[in-house]
Amino acid sequence: MIRSEAEKIIQRIDHLPLYLHAYAYHLNMRVENILPLDLLDIAAEQKLFGVKIHVLDGETRSLGQSDDRNLALFGQKAAQLGLDIHIETSSSEPKLIDQAVDIALKVKASSVRFYPRYEGHLQQVIAKIDSDIQYIKNTYSDSGLTFTLEQHEDLKGAELADIVSRSGMDTLSILFDFANMINANEQPLAALSDMAPWVTQVHIKDALIIPEGKGTGHKACASGAGDMPFKQLLTRLICLGDERPQVVAYGLEEEVDYYAPAFRFDDEGDNPWIPWRQMSETPLPKEQLAERLVQERNDALKQISFVRSMLDEIKQDALLLIK
Question: In 3-state terms, what secondary structure has residue 94?
Fold first, then answer.
């Protein structure tokens, strides 16, 4: 950390926009123990800036299954609690972008996150993503929404930066996930360097790096127990942007036991095959489900405390440097 970074940290860190991410309650939402409205209550209780929620979170009670009246009620409650809403979907296909945008507008969200899940050779996949982004640009540039493309396990940081920079879409940027680059055979700090000019949002989580042949997978774990360089990543992200903070949303996405395999490899060549993959999901345990659901709720709250403690540590480092 240098003095100019320390000054940015001192100016910004007390007002960092932390968001509750629904995936921190993934198992509870799968069994409908926690529903979208409950997330708003938790975020308000924890004095967070907003919520990030997938269109499918909550199963039959999800926003994707809600009628216009219930979507309006969700948006109204968020507004009453002073919470921002970000909508997430696990595709870049036009029909699923249409669904996410429709929901976002009805709940008065500010942003939509997406990521592609195409199978094919890399250049073929990138061409499909380019086409999808042009659809978003031509259809929704005037919607009032911002859009983020998440780095999600199969594409490398430089590839994502190139996609966004070529898009010509002013309302599109990158959402940086703390661990998803591992599956693309990259390391967190190097991947962040490649994506940094385009990063405006973040998913915070920790994970163990799992060697898999000539690639690496990851298994998410409790924050502070994994291999991610938490402090360095947060410090760099806070310092992005000169006149004002570049990163406008930090999602608290505890994902204990989530696993993703290696997708990119040392010897893959210039145009590797990208396999099909399902949406992110943590399997429900076959035994002791009730105990696991309690643990998940505790893990989510512990992550909030851990991140706030880490931010305080970063602030103290900055204050020492300024002195």
Answer: helix
